[in-house]
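User: Good morning. I'm curious how guanosine-5'-monophosphate would be positioned relative to this chain. Could you predict the structure with it bound?
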Amino acid sequence: MDDAIYRRGLMLVLSSPSGAGKTSISRELLRREPGLAMSVSATTRPKRPGETDGLDYFFVDQTEFGLRINRGEFLEHAKVFGNYYGTPRGPVEASLGEGRDVLFDIDWQGTQQIREKLAADLVTVFILPPSTAELERRLNARAQDPAHVVAQRMAQASNEMSHWPEYDYIVVNRDLDRSVAEVQSVLAAERIKRERQIGLGDFVKRLRDGR
Ligand code: 5GP
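Assistant: Good morning! Here's the predicted structure, ligand included:
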Protein backbone atom coordinates (compact mmCIF):
# COMPACT_ATOMS: atom_id res chain seq x y z
CA MET A 1 0.00 0.00 0.00
CA ASP A 2 1.86 3.06 -1.12
CA ASP A 3 -0.74 5.46 0.31
CA ALA A 4 1.37 5.19 3.46
CA ILE A 5 3.98 7.23 1.60
CA TYR A 6 3.30 10.93 1.54
CA ARG A 7 5.42 14.04 1.41
CA ARG A 8 5.52 17.66 2.39
CA GLY A 9 5.15 20.07 -0.50
CA LEU A 10 8.31 21.72 -1.75
CA MET A 11 9.02 25.38 -2.43
CA LEU A 12 10.26 25.96 -5.97
CA VAL A 13 11.90 29.36 -6.33
CA LEU A 14 12.61 30.94 -9.72
CA SER A 15 14.87 34.00 -9.70
CA SER A 16 16.41 35.94 -12.55
CA PRO A 17 17.16 39.46 -13.71
CA SER A 18 14.14 41.23 -15.22
CA GLY A 19 13.77 40.26 -18.86
CA ALA A 20 15.28 36.77 -18.66
CA GLY A 21 11.86 35.25 -19.35
CA LYS A 22 10.96 34.14 -15.84
CA THR A 23 7.32 35.24 -16.05
CA SER A 24 6.74 33.27 -19.29
CA ILE A 25 8.43 30.21 -17.81
CA SER A 26 6.32 30.43 -14.61
CA ARG A 27 3.09 30.80 -16.56
CA GLU A 28 3.78 27.78 -18.79
CA LEU A 29 5.01 25.72 -15.85
CA LEU A 30 1.77 26.35 -13.94
CA ARG A 31 -0.21 25.31 -17.02
CA ARG A 32 1.71 22.03 -17.34
CA GLU A 33 1.90 21.21 -13.63
CA PRO A 34 -1.54 21.14 -11.97
CA GLY A 35 0.03 20.16 -8.63
CA LEU A 36 1.90 23.45 -8.46
CA ALA A 37 0.38 26.60 -6.90
CA MET A 38 1.76 30.10 -7.46
CA SER A 39 2.59 32.20 -4.43
CA VAL A 40 1.04 35.63 -5.03
CA SER A 41 3.22 38.36 -3.49
CA ALA A 42 2.18 41.69 -2.02
CA THR A 43 3.87 44.77 -3.44
CA THR A 44 3.87 48.55 -3.10
CA ARG A 45 4.77 49.04 -6.77
CA PRO A 46 2.10 50.51 -9.07
CA LYS A 47 0.02 48.09 -11.09
CA ARG A 48 1.13 47.67 -14.73
CA PRO A 49 -1.38 47.58 -17.57
CA GLY A 50 -2.85 44.10 -17.83
CA GLU A 51 -2.09 43.14 -14.24
CA THR A 52 -4.88 41.99 -11.91
CA ASP A 53 -4.97 42.60 -8.16
CA GLY A 54 -4.95 39.29 -6.30
CA LEU A 55 -3.73 37.38 -9.35
CA ASP A 56 -0.41 38.95 -10.33
CA TYR A 57 0.17 40.69 -7.00
CA PHE A 58 -1.73 42.04 -4.04
CA PHE A 59 -1.22 45.76 -4.61
CA VAL A 60 -0.98 47.57 -1.28
CA ASP A 61 0.31 50.97 -0.10
CA GLN A 62 3.39 51.43 2.08
CA THR A 63 1.36 51.86 5.29
CA GLU A 64 -0.46 48.58 4.73
CA PHE A 65 2.79 46.83 3.80
CA GLY A 66 4.42 48.07 7.02
CA LEU A 67 1.46 46.84 9.08
CA ARG A 68 1.73 43.41 7.49
CA ILE A 69 5.46 43.26 8.31
CA ASN A 70 4.72 44.17 11.94
CA ARG A 71 2.03 41.50 12.16
CA GLY A 72 4.55 38.91 10.93
CA GLU A 73 2.44 38.11 7.88
CA PHE A 74 5.36 37.74 5.47
CA LEU A 75 7.56 34.69 5.03
CA GLU A 76 10.10 37.07 3.53
CA HIS A 77 10.11 40.62 2.26
CA ALA A 78 12.57 42.84 0.44
CA LYS A 79 13.00 46.17 -1.29
CA VAL A 80 13.53 45.71 -5.04
CA PHE A 81 14.00 48.71 -7.40
CA GLY A 82 12.66 51.06 -4.69
CA ASN A 83 9.43 49.12 -4.10
CA TYR A 84 8.58 46.62 -1.39
CA TYR A 85 7.69 43.02 -2.15
CA GLY A 86 6.67 40.29 0.29
CA THR A 87 5.46 36.70 0.31
CA PRO A 88 2.28 36.15 2.38
CA ARG A 89 3.00 33.35 4.86
CA GLY A 90 -0.46 31.78 5.32
CA PRO A 91 -1.18 30.33 1.85
CA VAL A 92 2.34 28.90 1.59
CA GLU A 93 2.21 27.10 4.92
CA ALA A 94 -1.26 25.73 4.13
CA SER A 95 -0.13 24.36 0.73
CA LEU A 96 3.05 22.78 2.10
CA GLY A 97 1.14 21.10 4.91
CA GLU A 98 -1.28 19.62 2.37
CA GLY A 99 1.63 18.22 0.35
CA ARG A 100 1.18 20.73 -2.47
CA ASP A 101 4.15 22.38 -4.15
CA VAL A 102 4.45 26.15 -4.34
CA LEU A 103 6.13 28.25 -7.04
CA PHE A 104 7.79 31.54 -6.07
CA ASP A 105 8.91 34.36 -8.36
CA ILE A 106 11.12 36.24 -5.89
CA ASP A 107 14.55 37.85 -5.94
CA TRP A 108 17.82 36.68 -4.35
CA GLN A 109 17.13 38.57 -1.10
CA GLY A 110 13.85 36.74 -0.55
CA THR A 111 15.46 33.43 -1.50
CA GLN A 112 18.16 33.94 1.15
CA GLN A 113 15.54 34.68 3.81
CA ILE A 114 13.50 31.56 3.00
CA ARG A 115 16.67 29.44 2.94
CA GLU A 116 17.44 30.57 6.51
CA LYS A 117 14.01 29.42 7.71
CA LEU A 118 12.95 26.49 5.55
CA ALA A 119 16.03 25.13 3.76
CA ALA A 120 14.79 21.53 3.70
CA ASP A 121 11.68 22.43 1.68
CA LEU A 122 13.48 24.73 -0.73
CA VAL A 123 14.53 24.09 -4.36
CA THR A 124 16.03 27.06 -6.18
CA VAL A 125 16.44 27.75 -9.89
CA PHE A 126 18.19 30.77 -11.39
CA ILE A 127 17.27 31.75 -14.93
CA LEU A 128 19.85 33.48 -17.10
CA PRO A 129 19.25 35.24 -20.41
CA PRO A 130 21.22 33.81 -23.38
CA SER A 131 23.08 37.13 -23.93
CA THR A 132 23.20 40.78 -22.89
CA ALA A 133 21.79 41.83 -26.26
CA GLU A 134 18.81 39.51 -25.84
CA LEU A 135 18.21 40.74 -22.28
CA GLU A 136 18.16 44.34 -23.52
CA ARG A 137 15.88 43.43 -26.40
CA ARG A 138 13.39 41.72 -24.08
CA LEU A 139 13.36 44.65 -21.64
CA ASN A 140 12.65 47.09 -24.48
CA ALA A 141 10.06 44.83 -26.10
CA ARG A 142 8.11 44.70 -22.86
CA ALA A 143 7.52 48.49 -23.19
CA GLN A 144 5.30 48.55 -20.15
CA ASP A 145 7.74 50.49 -18.04
CA PRO A 146 9.06 53.99 -18.69
CA ALA A 147 12.51 54.22 -20.36
CA HIS A 148 14.30 55.26 -17.18
CA VAL A 149 12.95 52.15 -15.43
CA VAL A 150 14.24 49.94 -18.26
CA ALA A 151 17.67 51.59 -18.01
CA GLN A 152 17.65 51.11 -14.24
CA ARG A 153 16.76 47.42 -14.60
CA MET A 154 19.50 46.87 -17.16
CA ALA A 155 21.97 48.29 -14.66
CA GLN A 156 20.50 46.10 -11.89
CA ALA A 157 20.68 42.94 -14.01
CA SER A 158 24.42 42.62 -13.56
CA ASN A 159 24.06 42.84 -9.78
CA GLU A 160 21.24 40.29 -9.72
CA MET A 161 23.11 37.86 -11.94
CA SER A 162 26.05 37.90 -9.49
CA HIS A 163 23.90 35.74 -7.18
CA TRP A 164 23.74 32.74 -9.50
CA PRO A 165 26.11 30.60 -7.35
CA GLU A 166 23.56 30.64 -4.50
CA TYR A 167 21.06 28.58 -6.55
CA ASP A 168 20.69 24.78 -6.91
CA TYR A 169 19.96 24.78 -10.66
CA ILE A 170 20.76 27.17 -13.51
CA VAL A 171 18.63 27.42 -16.64
CA VAL A 172 19.88 29.46 -19.60
CA ASN A 173 16.66 30.54 -21.30
CA ARG A 174 17.42 30.16 -25.02
CA ASP A 175 14.09 28.57 -25.80
CA LEU A 176 10.91 28.78 -23.69
CA ASP A 177 9.75 25.23 -24.31
CA ARG A 178 13.13 23.74 -23.43
CA SER A 179 13.53 25.92 -20.33
CA VAL A 180 10.12 24.87 -19.03
CA ALA A 181 10.99 21.21 -19.67
CA GLU A 182 14.23 21.68 -17.72
CA VAL A 183 12.41 23.15 -14.72
CA GLN A 184 9.87 20.30 -14.94
CA SER A 185 12.76 17.81 -14.77
CA VAL A 186 14.04 19.51 -11.63
CA LEU A 187 10.58 19.32 -10.10
CA ALA A 188 10.12 15.66 -11.01
CA ALA A 189 13.46 14.69 -9.47
CA GLU A 190 13.06 16.79 -6.35
CA ARG A 191 9.60 15.33 -5.69
CA ILE A 192 11.02 11.82 -5.29
CA LYS A 193 13.97 12.79 -3.10
CA ARG A 194 14.29 10.29 -0.28
CA GLU A 195 14.13 12.95 2.46
CA ARG A 196 10.82 14.25 1.12
CA GLN A 197 9.03 10.90 1.09
CA ILE A 198 7.71 10.40 4.59
CA GLY A 199 6.70 6.86 5.58
CA LEU A 200 9.21 5.10 3.32
CA GLY A 201 10.77 3.24 6.24
CA ASP A 202 7.49 1.54 7.18
CA PHE A 203 6.62 0.93 3.53
CA VAL A 204 9.90 -0.90 2.88
CA LYS A 205 9.58 -2.79 6.15
CA ARG A 206 6.20 -4.14 5.02
CA LEU A 207 7.67 -5.05 1.62
CA ARG A 208 10.50 -6.93 3.33
CA ASP A 209 8.10 -8.65 5.70
CA GLY A 210 6.08 -9.83 2.70
CA ARG A 211 2.96 -7.94 3.86
P1 5GP B 1 8.28 43.04 -11.01
O1 5GP B 1 8.05 44.38 -10.38
O2 5GP B 1 8.95 43.12 -12.34
O3 5GP B 1 7.03 42.20 -11.04
O4 5GP B 1 9.28 42.26 -10.05
C1 5GP B 1 10.53 42.80 -9.74
C2 5GP B 1 11.36 41.81 -8.96
O5 5GP B 1 10.77 41.58 -7.67
C3 5GP B 1 11.48 40.43 -9.61
O6 5GP B 1 12.84 40.06 -9.60
C4 5GP B 1 10.67 39.53 -8.74
O7 5GP B 1 11.20 38.23 -8.71
C5 5GP B 1 10.82 40.20 -7.39
N1 5GP B 1 9.73 39.84 -6.48
C6 5GP B 1 8.41 39.72 -6.78
N2 5GP B 1 7.71 39.36 -5.69
C7 5GP B 1 8.60 39.26 -4.68
C8 5GP B 1 8.48 38.89 -3.29
O8 5GP B 1 7.42 38.60 -2.75
N3 5GP B 1 9.65 38.89 -2.58
C9 5GP B 1 10.86 39.20 -3.11
N4 5GP B 1 11.92 39.15 -2.33
N5 5GP B 1 11.00 39.55 -4.42
C10 5GP B 1 9.89 39.56 -5.19
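The mean pLDDT is 92. DSSP finds eight helices and eleven strands in the chain.
Let me know if you'd like a different ligand tried.
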